[in-house]
Amino acid sequence: MSSVAEYIQDLTAQRTSSAVEDPGPASDIVACGILPWRCERGALEVLLIHRPRYDDWSWPKGKLDEEETLPECAIRETREEINLDVELGIPLPIIRYQVEGKSKEVWYWAAEVTTQQPRADQGEVDRVEWLSVEQARQRLTNDNDHQPLDALVEAFENKTLRTRPCLFLRHAKAKPRSSWSRAESERPLAATGRRQAWTVKRLLEAWSPQRVISSPWVRCMQTVAPFAKQAKRNVKQRDILTEKQAGKKASKATKEFLAQLGKNRPRVICTHRPVFPRIFEAIKAHLKKYAESKDLRDRLLNALPTDNPYVSPGAVIVVHQAVDRQLRIVSVEIYDSYDL
């Protein structure tokens, strides 16, 4: 078995929405891609690519590299094939098929394109074209490529396609409590955690949050520092996100997370493992008030971790909220950053 195949088996990637319920990769080969979309005069358009090697029309996509998360792969392949730097939107259905006796799956996301102009790399891709939905249906070479398109169209019609992400990040690996004798707020990342913070940066770039909010404790600040520096974002420190304050003032912490879910700018919030139950309480309260349907609410609630430690160090929970539907939560995704 190749190293990439072995790596795939250990990936944590979970996505839940009205259209998908993906517990993680389950094929020999994993690829990732996007459906680029835009709204022109109220009509939905999508971007198709032509690959001369196969003489087919399809979506931008490519195989996962080792030491790469699925969101990173989708972003990288889009940049390499059509020169677009995008941010991931809602998850779309996985395509599965067989290739030379091996199972293959392609994970898709929506990605809105506004001002950028796509450009074929003239290698794997020689043509790109914006098309109406009906034109795209006729142009697509493979029938299974219609599945993510159908989900995209449904989201557009339901006004849940344009979203903004709220990311909840657990800090990277810290030095053990047992080996730290100074103030708990000063306990830093371990050497592996400092390296992991750079993989956290790569993962966060898939959504490029505009606001960075963090517990002021050292290990949280060190986790978001590489992304904040690269993206030139200021870090807003909130005492209520610390273990101590969230433990003493649980209801206030829940209200803080609920308030963050009510804001319209993409954001990442870095906190500690013991604080995650407060995050889940806020998500549940938001879903109770704004859920699209009971079925979707129950699906999204079931997607939230229930057992301590909830998520791994450096992992992110991505909550997508529909901009045109009172910021209703429409999907929940969970990804581990690469563990160096």
TrEMBL record:
InterPro entries: His_Pase_superF_clade-1, His_PPase_superfam, NUDIX_hydrolase-like_dom_sf, NUDIX_hydrolase_CS, NUDIX_hydrolase_dom, Nudix_hydrolase_domain. Residues 27-154 form the Nudix hydrolase domain. GO terms for biological process: AMP biosynthetic process; ATP biosynthetic process. CDD domains: HP, NUDIX_Ap6A_hydrolase. GO terms for molecular function: bis(5'-nucleosyl)-tetraphosphatase (asymmetrical) activity. Keywords: Hydrolase. The keyword Lipid metabolism does not apply. Pfam families: His_Phos_1 (PF00300), NUDIX (PF00293). This is NUDIX hydrolase. It comes from Auritidibacter ignavus.
